[in-house]
Specification:
By secondary structure, the protein is α/β, with parallel strands linked by helices. About 35% of the residues lie in helices and about 30% in strands. Strands 7, 8, 9, 10, 11, 12, 15, 16 and 18 form a nine-stranded mixed beta sheet that branches. Strands 3-2-1-4-5-6-17 form a seven-stranded parallel beta sheet, sandwiched between helices. Bound molecules: NADPH dihydro-nicotinamide-adenine-dinucleotide phosphate. NADPH dihydro-nicotinamide-adenine-dinucleotide phosphate binds near residues 36, 57 and 80.
Amino acid sequence: MANVLIVGAGGVGQVVAHKCAQVEDVFENITLASRTKSKCDKIAAMLPRKINTAEVDADNVKEMVALINKVKPDMVINVALPYQDLHIMDACLETGVHYLDTANYEPPEEAKFEYKWQWAYQEKFEKAGLMALLGSGFDPGVTSVFTAYAKKHHFDRIKTLDIIDCNAGDHGLPFATNFNPEINIREITANGRYWENGEWITTKPLEEKREFDFPAGIGEKDIYLLYHEELESLSKHFPEIERARFWMTFGASYLKHLEVLQNVGMTSIEPVKFQGQEIVPIQFLKALLPDPASLGPLTKGKTCIGNIVHGTKDGEDKVYYVYNICDHQECYKEVKSQAISYTTGVPAMIGAKMMLEGKWMKPGVWNLEQLDPDPFMHDLNQYGLPWQETWLDKPFQ
Ligand code: NDP
């Protein structure tokens, strides 16, 4: 039975707190801390059992260390923003507790996410006998486990991998992002990138487009090629993969709004002077847009996120599709959040559970595909993200 400290009380933090609270035999004591304590208290009041709350600026390592020393958790579940990753990892090393996050480090002043900063902690965590689990959300996270599962059970060799993320939910608002707007818009307005024959191919933002016919009645949708962080770790850990790509659906209205905002400079991360004050346009835009956590009651429809894996088994060519369908309103009924926060928060809880139960506990810094996929796949079915698998007639082009 363990004691956990969850950092970040946004859309994802709310789901993690709910899901950990549901699994009392593993998560005996829970503390939820964030920059704004009132958000933690609001979440705590929704839960069926008592948890503790605290205020912390996770960018301040001293403050984090003091909080960890007070709470004495076995591990920290970091669901604040990617900017906090290294500071929280430093605090974990200083206090001797395990670490988990859902998104890789991104420097605030540069829209560039890479694993190199966190992979550089490998030796420090290993020497300290501590584990850091990186990217335990859905994508990265479940998509990483899906790849490991496909390789373990269905393929001798993976040739191509396409991760396809569809949000077919509708919140009825003209423009809103489903998770932190700043992180979301920085990701989408960046160049696309995919892995092919040992090198990275760069595409212009949203340049590559296909159509995909999704299961569960979702039907045909446009999908766009994006760079996504799991491509970096999967191409490293499965060097046999000849081509790895990531795709996401966007509706026409969403793209139109984004284009206009970009054209007028509202998505820029460069500070500008306004009435004697420096403001960062994208941060100002975030203040105007709906809080992703407020979309829960409004969003109807489903998400479908999965992997298409093409490879060989016993000399035979095969195409495998493994995916999860999640319903926004079902999520809201259970944890008062929409499916994007839900599909991230559940795998964060499961990753922590894997570590605390000893199934994945191993000193060092790890991505999910490096660990045994079976217990995690089992728990996805158990804790709200059931997956389905099927074989396709031909590879995805
Ligand atoms: P939100 O913006 O809704 O929440 C972020 C929370 O972190 C807020 O409560 C915020 O506090 C808190 N926070 C920010 N800075 C600090 C700080 N310095 N110290 C303490 N707390 C801080 O984001 P989401 O919940 O949507 O996303 C959380 C994380 O999940 C992000 O890293 C995101 O990239 C990741 N994610 C991962 C996905 C995956 O599939 N792997 C998918 C979706 C998201 P305050 O309210 O005061 O601002």
